[in-house]
Design a protein that fits this description.
Blueprint: E1 39-44, E2 48-55, H1 58-63, E3 77-91, E4 100-105, E5 111-117, E6 126-139, H2 142-146, E7 154-155
Parallel strand pairs: 2-3
Antiparallel strand pairs: 1-2, 1-7, 3-6, 4-5, 4-6
Length: 164
């Protein structure tokens, strides 16, 4: 699964929650606007809480953080990509304008691997190094700042589930 494939289809989101105010900018190139995505709270090491946009379908996961600017989200926001089953995952940075940290997480919430990914990097294939059910993307440098590393646990609500 790659987080950077553009797919344009007509889908509506009547049940979507509103994201925080700074994400209200309309990004013409995006199909899924941040304000239309469901959000959830996750925490690292039972203390560092983040609000994440839930990327729970193939189309949402394919778009991911593409075309967003640094000002579209804060250090306390990110995306969680949730899959129906744990699997080997690989992400890249096509059309992703902001450098990001990524953590691959197994079904129990254990971080398997982390990377800092360069903006617009289509050459590097950032692999999970194990069967992951989740991938979490945040602004680059946050994991280093919070001392997040493989082996750490992430608290992910059981309500976060993949739709496809």
């Amino acid at each position: 699964m790659l987080s950077s494939l553009i797919i344009f289809l007509a889908v509506t989101h009547p049940e979507a929650q509103t994201a925080p105010a700074q994400s209200q900018r309309h990004v013409e190139q995006r199909y899924f606007q941040l304000k239309d995505l469901d959000t959830a709270k996750i925490s690292f090491k039972e203390k560092d809480e983040l609000t994440v946009w839930v990327m729970d379908s193939n189309l949402k996961r394919a778009e991911g953080m593409m075309f967003l600017k640094d000002s579209d989200f804060t250090e306390k926001q990110g995306m969680i990509f949730v899959f129906t089953a744990a699997q080997e995952l690989r992400f890249w940075m096509r059309n992703t304008l902001v450098p990001l940290d990524i953590a691959y997480v197994d079904e129990r919430g254990k971080i398997l691997s982390t990377y800092t990914m360069k903006a617009l990097d289509e050459e590097t294939d950032y692999s999970s190094l194990g069967r992951s059910k989740y991938a979490i993307e945040v602004k680059a440098g946050l994991f280093k700042k919070l001392k997040i590393m493989p082996g750490d646990m992430v608290q992910i609500p059981s309500t976060i589930k993949a739709k496809d």
